[in-house]
Protein backbone atom coordinates (compact mmCIF):
# COMPACT_ATOMS: atom_id res chain seq x y z
CA UNK A 1 0.00 0.00 0.00
CA UNK A 2 1.39 3.41 -0.94
CA UNK A 3 1.34 5.65 2.09
CA UNK A 4 -0.38 8.92 1.28
CA UNK A 5 1.59 12.05 2.18
CA UNK A 6 2.53 15.43 0.75
CA UNK A 7 5.82 13.88 -0.26
CA UNK A 8 4.24 11.02 -2.27
CA UNK A 9 1.90 13.49 -4.00
CA UNK A 10 4.93 15.57 -4.96
CA UNK A 11 6.96 12.50 -6.02
CA UNK A 12 4.14 11.08 -8.15
CA UNK A 13 3.65 14.50 -9.70
CA UNK A 14 7.20 14.26 -10.98
CA UNK A 15 6.82 10.59 -12.02
CA UNK A 16 3.63 10.98 -14.06
CA UNK A 17 1.37 9.46 -11.34
CA UNK A 18 2.59 5.94 -12.22
CA UNK A 19 3.59 4.79 -8.73
CA UNK A 20 0.19 4.62 -7.03
CA UNK A 21 -1.07 1.24 -5.84
CA UNK A 22 -4.71 0.28 -5.97
CA UNK A 23 -6.39 1.36 -2.74
CA UNK A 24 -7.66 -2.18 -2.16
CA UNK A 25 -7.48 -5.59 -3.86
CA UNK A 26 -10.38 -7.40 -5.54
CA UNK A 27 -9.82 -10.92 -4.24
CA UNK A 28 -11.73 -14.10 -5.04
CA UNK A 29 -13.47 -15.33 -1.88
CA UNK A 30 -11.79 -18.13 0.06
CA UNK A 31 -14.01 -21.05 1.15
CA UNK A 32 -13.75 -20.07 4.82
CA UNK A 33 -12.83 -17.16 7.09
CA UNK A 34 -12.80 -16.51 10.83
CA UNK A 35 -15.37 -13.77 10.36
CA UNK A 36 -17.62 -12.86 7.44
CA UNK A 37 -19.26 -9.44 7.43
CA UNK A 38 -22.26 -8.91 5.17
CA UNK A 39 -22.39 -5.41 3.73
CA UNK A 40 -19.41 -3.25 2.76
CA UNK A 41 -20.79 0.06 3.89
CA UNK A 42 -19.15 2.21 6.52
CA UNK A 43 -20.17 0.01 9.46
CA UNK A 44 -19.10 -3.23 7.76
CA UNK A 45 -15.73 -1.90 6.64
CA UNK A 46 -15.08 -0.24 10.00
CA UNK A 47 -15.94 -3.51 11.73
CA UNK A 48 -13.38 -5.35 9.58
CA UNK A 49 -10.76 -2.69 10.25
CA UNK A 50 -11.22 -2.79 14.03
CA UNK A 51 -11.34 -6.63 14.05
CA UNK A 52 -7.87 -6.59 12.52
CA UNK A 53 -6.51 -3.65 14.48
CA UNK A 54 -7.97 -4.13 17.96
CA UNK A 55 -8.39 -7.89 18.07
CA UNK A 56 -5.76 -9.25 15.66
CA UNK A 57 -8.46 -11.05 13.65
CA UNK A 58 -7.33 -10.56 10.07
CA UNK A 59 -8.91 -13.59 8.41
CA UNK A 60 -11.99 -11.57 7.59
CA UNK A 61 -14.13 -11.11 4.48
CA UNK A 62 -16.49 -8.24 3.86
CA UNK A 63 -18.99 -9.23 1.19
CA UNK A 64 -21.11 -6.70 -0.66
CA UNK A 65 -23.90 -7.24 -3.18
CA UNK A 66 -23.14 -3.99 -5.00
CA UNK A 67 -20.13 -1.76 -4.70
CA UNK A 68 -18.55 -0.69 -1.43
CA UNK A 69 -20.00 2.44 0.10
CA UNK A 70 -22.84 2.41 -2.44
CA UNK A 71 -25.70 2.21 0.05
CA UNK A 72 -26.48 4.66 2.81
CA UNK A 73 -22.80 5.44 3.37
CA UNK A 74 -22.80 7.17 -0.01
CA UNK A 75 -26.32 8.59 0.33
CA UNK A 76 -26.34 10.51 3.62
CA UNK A 77 -25.90 14.21 4.32
CA UNK A 78 -22.50 13.68 6.03
CA UNK A 79 -23.38 15.29 9.37
CA UNK A 80 -21.39 14.06 12.37
CA UNK A 81 -22.66 15.05 15.85
CA UNK A 82 -23.40 13.71 19.32
CA UNK A 83 -26.20 16.01 20.54
CA UNK A 84 -28.26 13.21 22.08
CA UNK A 85 -30.17 13.20 25.34
CA UNK A 86 -29.76 9.91 27.19
CA UNK A 87 -26.39 8.91 28.77
CA UNK A 88 -26.25 5.66 26.75
CA UNK A 89 -26.66 7.50 23.44
CA UNK A 90 -24.35 10.35 24.39
CA UNK A 91 -21.61 7.85 25.30
CA UNK A 92 -22.05 5.95 22.04
CA UNK A 93 -22.24 8.89 19.64
CA UNK A 94 -19.60 10.97 21.38
CA UNK A 95 -17.24 8.00 21.24
CA UNK A 96 -17.87 8.07 17.51
CA UNK A 97 -17.17 11.80 17.22
CA UNK A 98 -13.92 11.29 19.15
CA UNK A 99 -12.88 8.47 16.80
CA UNK A 100 -13.75 10.70 13.84
CA UNK A 101 -11.53 13.46 15.24
CA UNK A 102 -8.48 11.27 14.75
CA UNK A 103 -9.70 9.18 11.82
CA UNK A 104 -7.86 10.85 8.94
CA UNK A 105 -4.55 10.35 10.71
CA UNK A 106 -5.39 6.83 11.85
CA UNK A 107 -6.47 5.64 8.39
CA UNK A 108 -3.90 7.72 6.48
CA UNK A 109 -6.88 8.92 4.45
CA UNK A 110 -8.41 12.37 4.53
CA UNK A 111 -12.02 11.94 5.61
CA UNK A 112 -12.35 15.74 5.67
CA UNK A 113 -14.02 15.88 9.08
CA UNK A 114 -14.72 19.59 9.42
CA UNK A 115 -15.89 20.53 12.93
CA UNK A 116 -17.88 23.52 11.84
CA UNK A 117 -20.52 23.06 14.53
CA UNK A 118 -24.23 22.46 14.38
CA UNK A 119 -27.09 24.71 15.44
CA UNK A 120 -30.54 23.36 16.27
CA UNK A 121 -32.86 26.33 16.43
CA UNK A 122 -35.66 26.94 18.95
CA UNK A 123 -38.72 28.87 17.85
CA UNK A 124 -40.74 29.69 20.98
CA UNK A 125 -40.21 30.19 24.71
CA UNK A 126 -41.29 26.60 25.53
CA UNK A 127 -38.82 25.38 22.90
CA UNK A 128 -36.15 27.52 24.58
CA UNK A 129 -36.86 25.71 27.84
CA UNK A 130 -36.48 22.37 26.08
CA UNK A 131 -33.28 23.65 24.45
CA UNK A 132 -31.87 24.56 27.88
CA UNK A 133 -32.78 21.08 29.11
CA UNK A 134 -31.00 19.57 26.10
CA UNK A 135 -27.86 21.65 26.71
CA UNK A 136 -27.83 20.65 30.38
CA UNK A 137 -28.29 16.96 29.54
CA UNK A 138 -25.51 17.05 26.98
CA UNK A 139 -23.12 18.78 29.41
CA UNK A 140 -23.96 16.30 32.16
CA UNK A 141 -23.04 13.58 29.69
CA UNK A 142 -19.71 15.24 28.96
CA UNK A 143 -20.67 16.46 25.49
CA UNK A 144 -19.95 20.04 24.44
CA UNK A 145 -23.07 22.18 24.14
CA UNK A 146 -23.88 25.88 24.17
CA UNK A 147 -27.20 27.57 24.74
CA UNK A 148 -27.63 30.39 22.25
CA UNK A 149 -29.91 33.39 22.20
CA UNK A 150 -31.29 34.85 18.99
CA UNK A 151 -28.33 37.19 18.39
CA UNK A 152 -25.83 34.38 18.86
CA UNK A 153 -27.71 32.21 16.35
CA UNK A 154 -27.75 35.17 13.98
CA UNK A 155 -24.00 35.53 14.26
CA UNK A 156 -23.48 31.85 13.42
CA UNK A 157 -26.06 31.61 10.65
CA UNK A 158 -26.93 35.04 9.25
CA UNK A 159 -28.61 33.41 6.28
CA UNK A 160 -31.59 32.30 8.40
CA UNK A 161 -34.77 34.34 8.25
CA UNK A 162 -34.89 36.86 11.12
CA UNK A 163 -37.55 39.02 9.53
CA UNK A 164 -40.98 39.78 11.00
CA UNK A 165 -42.62 37.55 8.37
CA UNK A 166 -41.00 34.34 9.68
CA UNK A 167 -43.73 31.78 10.36
CA UNK A 168 -41.92 30.49 13.47
CA UNK A 169 -39.55 33.26 14.65
CA UNK A 170 -36.15 32.16 15.94
CA UNK A 171 -35.69 32.61 19.70
CA UNK A 172 -32.33 30.85 20.09
CA UNK A 173 -30.91 27.40 19.84
CA UNK A 174 -28.54 24.63 20.88
CA UNK A 175 -25.03 24.64 19.45
CA UNK A 176 -22.57 21.76 19.45
CA UNK A 177 -19.19 23.21 18.40
CA UNK A 178 -17.52 19.81 17.83
CA UNK A 179 -20.19 18.63 15.39
CA UNK A 180 -19.59 19.01 11.70
CA UNK A 181 -19.48 17.27 8.37
CA UNK A 182 -17.21 14.68 6.79
CA UNK A 183 -16.59 13.29 3.35
CA UNK A 184 -18.86 10.23 3.34
CA UNK A 185 -17.22 8.33 0.46
CA UNK A 186 -13.80 8.92 1.98
CA UNK A 187 -14.93 7.26 5.22
CA UNK A 188 -15.87 4.10 3.28
CA UNK A 189 -12.76 4.24 1.12
CA UNK A 190 -10.44 5.01 4.04
CA UNK A 191 -11.74 2.10 6.12
CA UNK A 192 -11.67 -0.19 3.05
CA UNK A 193 -8.08 0.68 2.26
CA UNK A 194 -6.91 0.38 5.85
CA UNK A 195 -8.74 -2.94 6.35
CA UNK A 196 -7.40 -4.33 3.07
CA UNK A 197 -3.88 -3.36 4.09
CA UNK A 198 -4.28 -5.57 7.16
CA UNK A 199 -5.32 -8.55 5.06
CA UNK A 200 -9.12 -8.22 5.05
CA UNK A 201 -10.73 -9.44 1.81
CA UNK A 202 -13.35 -7.04 0.42
CA UNK A 203 -15.50 -8.91 -2.06
CA UNK A 204 -17.85 -6.75 -4.14
CA UNK A 205 -20.68 -7.95 -6.40
CA UNK A 206 -21.22 -10.84 -4.02
CA UNK A 207 -24.81 -11.13 -2.86
CA UNK A 208 -25.88 -13.30 0.05
CA UNK A 209 -28.57 -15.71 -1.17
CA UNK A 210 -28.94 -17.90 1.89
CA UNK A 211 -27.53 -18.47 5.36
CA UNK A 212 -25.90 -21.86 5.95
CA UNK A 213 -26.99 -23.42 9.21
CA UNK A 214 -25.88 -26.60 10.94
CA UNK A 215 -27.45 -27.79 14.18
CA UNK A 216 -29.30 -24.51 14.65
CA UNK A 217 -26.14 -22.45 14.21
CA UNK A 218 -25.21 -20.13 11.36
CA UNK A 219 -21.95 -21.43 9.89
CA UNK A 220 -21.67 -19.41 6.70
CA UNK A 221 -23.40 -17.89 3.72
CA UNK A 222 -24.26 -19.06 0.23
CA UNK A 223 -23.50 -16.18 -2.11
CA UNK A 224 -23.58 -15.38 -5.81
CA UNK A 225 -19.85 -16.28 -5.73
CA UNK A 226 -20.27 -19.59 -3.91
CA UNK A 227 -20.34 -20.75 -0.31
CA UNK A 228 -18.28 -18.97 2.33
CA UNK A 229 -18.06 -20.42 5.81
CA UNK A 230 -17.13 -18.55 8.99
CA UNK A 231 -17.05 -18.95 12.78
CA UNK A 232 -18.96 -15.71 13.19
CA UNK A 233 -21.11 -13.78 10.75
CA UNK A 234 -21.95 -10.11 11.18
CA UNK A 235 -24.66 -8.33 9.22
CA UNK A 236 -24.25 -4.58 8.68
CA UNK A 237 -26.85 -4.07 5.99
CA UNK A 238 -28.93 -1.13 7.32
CA UNK A 239 -32.25 -0.92 5.47
CA UNK A 240 -31.99 -4.52 4.31
CA UNK A 241 -31.46 -5.97 7.80
CA UNK A 242 -34.95 -7.50 7.77
CA UNK A 243 -34.09 -9.33 4.54
CA UNK A 244 -31.07 -11.01 6.17
CA UNK A 245 -33.05 -11.60 9.39
CA UNK A 246 -35.77 -13.27 7.33
CA UNK A 247 -33.15 -15.78 6.09
CA UNK A 248 -32.49 -16.49 9.79
CA UNK A 249 -36.25 -16.69 10.41
CA UNK A 250 -36.05 -13.81 12.86
CA UNK A 251 -38.37 -10.79 12.89
CA UNK A 252 -36.64 -7.54 13.83
CA UNK A 253 -38.22 -4.44 15.36
CA UNK A 254 -37.37 -2.56 12.18
CA UNK A 255 -39.35 -0.82 9.46
CA UNK A 256 -37.53 0.25 6.31
CA UNK A 257 -38.21 3.69 4.87
CA UNK A 258 -36.68 5.82 2.17
CA UNK A 259 -34.83 8.88 3.44
CA UNK A 260 -34.17 11.55 0.84
CA UNK A 261 -31.45 14.13 0.46
CA UNK A 262 -30.74 16.93 -1.96
CA UNK A 263 -27.74 18.85 -3.21
CA UNK A 264 -27.85 22.21 -4.99
CA UNK A 265 -25.70 23.72 -7.66
CA UNK A 266 -22.37 24.95 -6.21
CA UNK A 267 -22.48 28.42 -4.65
CA UNK A 268 -19.91 30.76 -3.13
CA UNK A 269 -19.64 30.12 0.63
CA UNK A 270 -22.90 31.16 2.34
CA UNK A 271 -23.05 28.87 5.38
CA UNK A 272 -20.18 27.62 7.53
CA UNK A 273 -22.11 25.56 10.05
CA UNK A 274 -24.83 22.91 10.02
CA UNK A 275 -28.34 24.25 10.71
CA UNK A 276 -31.42 22.25 11.68
CA UNK A 277 -34.78 23.99 12.11
CA UNK A 278 -37.07 21.38 13.72
CA UNK A 279 -40.43 23.05 12.94
CA UNK A 280 -39.64 22.94 9.24
CA UNK A 281 -38.10 19.47 9.38
CA UNK A 282 -35.22 20.66 7.26
CA UNK A 283 -31.48 20.87 7.81
CA UNK A 284 -28.68 22.17 5.66
CA UNK A 285 -24.93 22.49 5.36
CA UNK A 286 -22.60 23.59 2.58
CA UNK A 287 -20.02 21.21 1.18
CA UNK A 288 -16.46 22.16 0.35
CA UNK A 289 -17.46 22.10 -3.33
CA UNK A 290 -20.10 24.73 -2.60
CA UNK A 291 -23.18 22.57 -2.97
CA UNK A 292 -25.86 23.00 -0.36
CA UNK A 293 -26.57 19.60 1.18
CA UNK A 294 -30.18 19.46 2.33
CA UNK A 295 -31.99 16.80 4.30
CA UNK A 296 -35.29 16.28 6.03
CA UNK A 297 -37.54 13.66 7.48
CA UNK A 298 -38.45 10.15 6.46
CA UNK A 299 -40.87 9.34 3.71
CA UNK A 300 -44.31 8.38 5.03
CA UNK A 301 -44.58 5.08 3.15
CA UNK A 302 -42.45 2.05 4.16
CA UNK A 303 -40.24 1.27 1.18
CA UNK A 304 -37.24 -0.55 -0.23
CA UNK A 305 -37.20 1.64 -3.36
CA UNK A 306 -33.91 3.56 -3.29
CA UNK A 307 -35.27 6.65 -4.97
CA UNK A 308 -36.75 10.00 -4.06
CA UNK A 309 -40.33 11.09 -4.44
CA UNK A 310 -42.26 14.30 -4.51
CA UNK A 311 -44.28 14.73 -1.27
CA UNK A 312 -41.26 14.80 1.03
CA UNK A 313 -39.26 16.79 -1.50
CA UNK A 314 -41.95 19.45 -1.39
CA UNK A 315 -42.04 19.46 2.43
CA UNK A 316 -38.25 19.72 2.82
CA UNK A 317 -37.77 22.41 0.20
CA UNK A 318 -40.76 24.43 1.41
CA UNK A 319 -39.14 24.31 4.86
CA UNK A 320 -35.83 25.46 3.41
CA UNK A 321 -37.41 28.44 1.68
CA UNK A 322 -39.06 29.45 4.96
CA UNK A 323 -35.77 29.02 6.86
CA UNK A 324 -33.55 30.74 4.34
CA UNK A 325 -35.63 32.68 1.80
CA UNK A 326 -32.44 33.89 0.07
CA UNK A 327 -31.99 30.33 -1.25
CA UNK A 328 -35.41 30.18 -2.92
CA UNK A 329 -34.05 30.55 -6.43
CA UNK A 330 -31.09 28.17 -6.00
CA UNK A 331 -31.36 25.18 -8.33
CA UNK A 332 -31.11 21.59 -7.20
CA UNK A 333 -28.47 19.48 -8.88
CA UNK A 334 -29.45 16.02 -7.63
CA UNK A 335 -31.73 14.30 -5.21
CA UNK A 336 -31.75 10.68 -4.11
CA UNK A 337 -32.85 8.29 -1.37
CA UNK A 338 -31.39 5.55 0.79
CA UNK A 339 -33.28 2.85 2.68
CA UNK A 340 -32.98 3.33 6.41
CA UNK A 341 -33.77 0.85 9.19
CA UNK A 342 -36.00 2.57 11.71
CA UNK A 343 -36.49 1.13 15.21
CA UNK A 344 -39.33 2.01 17.62
CA UNK A 345 -36.98 4.00 19.89
CA UNK A 346 -34.79 5.55 17.16
CA UNK A 347 -31.76 3.81 18.70
CA UNK A 348 -29.55 1.22 17.03
CA UNK A 349 -29.44 -2.53 17.55
CA UNK A 350 -26.09 -4.18 18.26
CA UNK A 351 -26.13 -7.76 19.43
CA UNK A 352 -26.86 -11.41 18.71
CA UNK A 353 -29.58 -12.01 16.12
CA UNK A 354 -31.38 -14.90 17.76
CA UNK A 355 -29.69 -17.37 15.40
CA UNK A 356 -26.44 -18.51 16.99
CA UNK A 357 -23.38 -17.39 15.07
CA UNK A 358 -25.14 -14.45 13.41
CA UNK A 359 -24.76 -10.97 14.89
CA UNK A 360 -26.47 -7.72 13.96
CA UNK A 361 -25.37 -4.12 13.71
CA UNK A 362 -28.43 -2.27 12.44
CA UNK A 363 -31.30 -0.01 13.34
CA UNK A 364 -29.26 3.18 12.99
CA UNK A 365 -32.18 4.59 11.05
CA UNK A 366 -31.51 8.08 9.80
CA UNK A 367 -28.25 8.53 11.72
CA UNK A 368 -25.84 5.75 10.81
CA UNK A 369 -23.10 7.76 9.13
CA UNK A 370 -22.08 9.70 12.22
CA UNK A 371 -21.77 6.42 14.12
CA UNK A 372 -19.59 4.50 11.66
CA UNK A 373 -16.33 4.38 13.66
CA UNK A 374 -18.11 3.57 16.94
CA UNK A 375 -20.44 1.05 15.32
CA UNK A 376 -17.48 -0.72 13.74
CA UNK A 377 -15.39 -0.58 16.92
CA UNK A 378 -18.14 -1.99 19.14
CA UNK A 379 -19.38 -4.57 16.64
CA UNK A 380 -15.81 -5.83 16.18
CA UNK A 381 -15.61 -6.25 19.95
CA UNK A 382 -18.82 -8.29 19.94
CA UNK A 383 -17.74 -10.48 17.01
CA UNK A 384 -14.26 -11.06 18.44
CA UNK A 385 -15.21 -11.78 22.04
CA UNK A 386 -18.84 -12.86 21.86
CA UNK A 387 -19.56 -10.25 24.55
CA UNK A 388 -20.73 -6.66 24.50
CA UNK A 389 -18.43 -3.71 25.02
CA UNK A 390 -19.88 -1.58 27.84
CA UNK A 391 -20.93 1.08 25.33
CA UNK A 392 -22.93 -1.31 23.14
CA UNK A 393 -24.62 -3.36 25.88
CA UNK A 394 -27.60 -0.98 26.30
CA UNK A 395 -28.29 -1.36 22.57
CA UNK A 396 -28.74 -5.13 22.66
CA UNK A 397 -32.06 -6.19 21.09
CA UNK A 398 -33.08 -7.70 24.44
CA UNK A 399 -34.18 -4.17 25.39
CA UNK A 400 -37.38 -4.67 23.42
CA UNK A 401 -38.32 -7.54 25.72
CA UNK A 402 -37.11 -6.01 29.00
CA UNK A 403 -38.62 -2.63 28.16
CA UNK A 404 -35.36 -0.69 28.55
CA UNK A 405 -35.86 1.33 25.40
CA UNK A 406 -33.57 4.29 24.73
CA UNK A 407 -36.17 6.54 23.25
CA UNK A 408 -34.15 9.18 21.45
CA UNK A 409 -37.10 9.67 19.12
CA UNK A 410 -38.87 11.41 21.96
CA UNK A 411 -35.86 12.69 23.91
CA UNK A 412 -33.78 14.30 21.18
CA UNK A 413 -36.78 15.25 19.11
CA UNK A 414 -35.66 13.18 16.16
CA UNK A 415 -38.46 14.06 13.82
CA UNK A 416 -38.66 10.57 12.39
CA UNK B 1 -47.13 12.16 -6.17
CA UNK B 2 -48.48 8.63 -5.80
CA UNK B 3 -52.19 7.89 -5.86
CA UNK B 4 -53.50 5.38 -3.31
CA UNK B 5 -56.96 3.84 -3.61
CA UNK B 6 -59.28 4.17 -0.62
CA UNK B 7 -61.95 1.46 -0.84
CA UNK B 8 -64.52 4.03 0.30
CA UNK B 9 -63.43 7.25 -1.43
CA UNK B 10 -61.58 6.01 -4.51
CA UNK B 11 -58.15 7.17 -5.76
CA UNK B 12 -56.66 9.92 -3.60
CA UNK B 13 -53.32 11.64 -3.06
CA UNK B 14 -50.83 9.64 -0.94
CA UNK B 15 -50.49 12.49 1.56
CA UNK B 16 -54.07 11.77 2.70
CA UNK B 17 -53.00 8.34 4.00
CA UNK B 18 -51.26 7.12 7.13
CA UNK B 19 -49.46 3.79 7.52
CA UNK B 20 -51.03 2.03 10.51
CA UNK B 21 -49.13 -1.26 10.58
CA UNK B 22 -48.63 -4.69 9.09
CA UNK B 23 -51.71 -6.83 8.58
CA UNK B 24 -52.25 -9.91 10.71
CA UNK B 25 -50.91 -8.90 14.11
CA UNK B 26 -53.11 -10.25 16.84
CA UNK B 27 -53.06 -8.67 20.27
CA UNK B 28 -52.15 -11.24 22.96
CA UNK B 29 -55.08 -12.58 24.95
CA UNK B 30 -54.79 -10.60 28.17
CA UNK B 31 -57.31 -12.90 29.81
CA UNK B 32 -54.34 -15.20 30.25
CA UNK B 33 -50.77 -14.61 31.45
CA UNK B 34 -48.76 -12.97 28.62
CA UNK B 35 -44.98 -13.23 28.88
CA UNK B 36 -42.62 -10.37 28.02
CA UNK B 37 -41.40 -12.09 24.88
CA UNK B 38 -44.89 -12.36 23.40
CA UNK B 39 -45.63 -8.75 24.27
CA UNK B 40 -42.37 -7.66 22.61
CA UNK B 41 -43.22 -9.66 19.49
CA UNK B 42 -46.66 -8.12 19.29
CA UNK B 43 -45.49 -4.58 20.00
CA UNK B 44 -42.24 -4.41 18.06
CA UNK B 45 -41.46 -7.29 15.69
CA UNK B 46 -42.03 -6.50 12.01
CA UNK B 47 -41.91 -8.72 8.96
CA UNK B 48 -40.78 -5.66 6.97
CA UNK B 49 -40.81 -7.62 3.72
CA UNK B 50 -39.10 -6.52 0.54
CA UNK B 51 -41.63 -7.08 -2.23
CA UNK B 52 -45.29 -7.89 -1.79
CA UNK B 53 -46.73 -6.59 1.51
CA UNK B 54 -50.20 -6.48 3.08
CA UNK B 55 -50.68 -3.54 5.40
CA UNK B 56 -53.34 -1.64 7.31
CA UNK B 57 -53.66 1.99 6.25
CA UNK B 58 -55.76 4.84 7.51
CA UNK B 59 -57.38 7.26 5.10
CA UNK B 60 -57.12 10.41 7.19
CA UNK B 61 -59.90 12.29 5.46
CA UNK B 62 -62.59 9.61 5.93
CA UNK B 63 -61.00 8.03 9.03
CA UNK B 64 -61.48 4.51 7.67
CA UNK B 65 -58.91 1.78 8.15
CA UNK B 66 -58.42 -0.59 5.23
CA UNK B 67 -56.05 -3.22 3.85
CA UNK B 68 -53.67 -2.28 1.07
CA UNK B 69 -51.59 -4.79 -0.88
CA UNK B 70 -48.59 -3.25 -2.53
CA UNK B 71 -45.00 -3.88 -3.57
CA UNK B 72 -42.52 -2.27 -1.18
CA UNK B 73 -39.80 -2.19 -3.83
CA UNK B 74 -41.62 -0.99 -6.96
CA UNK B 75 -44.35 0.84 -4.97
CA UNK B 76 -47.05 -0.64 -7.22
CA UNK B 77 -50.41 -0.92 -5.47
CA UNK B 78 -52.12 -4.26 -6.15
CA UNK B 79 -55.36 -3.97 -4.21
CA UNK B 80 -57.14 -2.17 -1.43
CA UNK B 81 -60.13 -3.47 0.45
CA UNK B 82 -62.23 -2.82 3.48
CA UNK B 83 -61.16 -4.35 6.79
CA UNK B 84 -64.74 -5.52 7.26
CA UNK B 85 -65.68 -9.08 6.39
CA UNK B 86 -62.96 -11.55 5.55
CA UNK B 87 -60.07 -9.17 4.73
CA UNK B 88 -57.90 -10.73 7.45
TrEMBL record, chain A:
UniProt-listed SUPFAM superfamilies: FAD-linked reductases, C-terminal domain (SSF54373), FAD/NAD(P)-binding domain (SSF51905)
Recorded catalytic activity of this chain's protein: sarcosine + O2 + H2O = formaldehyde + glycine + H2O2; sarcosine + (6S)-5,6,7,8-tetrahydrofolate + O2 = (6R)-5,10-methylene-5,6,7,8-tetrahydrofolate + glycine + H2O2
A GO MF term: sarcosine oxidase activity
Compartment(s) of residence: Cytoplasm
GO process terms (BP): tetrahydrofolate metabolic process
Pfam families: DAO (PF01266)
Domain of life: Bacteria
Protein EC: 1.5.3.24
InterPro entries: FAD-dep_OxRdtase, FAD/NAD-bd_sf, Rhodanese-like_dom, SoxB
Cofactor: FMN; FAD
Presence of keyword Flavoprotein: yes
Membrane is among the record's keywords: no
Cellular component per GO, a single term: cytoplasm
EC class name: oxidoreductase
Sequence ranges assigned to domain Rhodanese in this UniProt record: 35-79
Stated family: Belongs to the SoxB family.
Designated name of the protein: Sarcosine oxidase subunit beta
Organism: Litoreibacter ascidiaceicola
Automatic annotation (TrEMBL), chain B:
GO molecular function: sarcosine oxidase activity
Signal peptide: none
A matching Pfam family: SoxD
Gene Ontology process terms (BP): tetrahydrofolate metabolic process
Name listed for the protein in its UniProt record: Sarcosine oxidase subunit delta
Biological classification of the source: Bacteria, Pseudomonadati, Pseudomonadota, Alphaproteobacteria, Rhodobacterales
